[in-house]
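[Q] Does anyone have a clean structure-token version of this?
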Amino acid sequence: MIIIIFQAAVAHFWKRIICRILLHLFKKRSEKVKIIMVIMKDIGNDYQQWTKALELLRQESALLKYRLSEMVDSDEENLFLQKAEYFQNELLLKDEWLKKLIKEVQYYKDSVENKMDLPKKIKALHDNLKKDIARFEKQFLILSKEFNEQMLQHS
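[A] Here you go.
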């Protein structure tokens, strides 16, 4: 129910933003308006995908930390504890990075919604977020795979 309300709110948000931009740019050539419409549609889709992806990664991080704590409680072998400490530190670093990305996505949403920045600046922010989130997802998936290979064989 909350997801449906959230999706409706996001859809309404993007419709309002697109309408504002179109009204502002209506005086411009029709080609520019078409290009802006395509860009704004992509931006809206990316925002929704980013929000979902970051939430899934946050949940996976919490699950890995929980599984790690269970393993540490049941084993006191020195090598295992060293691996566990490594993964705990890595997960904490990823959590900090994830929090930063979530804040940046929120800032991006606020900038678009409130027209705080010029379209070129918003586009640059969009492109940077796209690269940062892709890099984070790749590194997190590598860590998750490494965790599953090394830690779960021990349990």
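[Q] Thanks! Anything notable?
[A] The longest helix spans residues 30-74.
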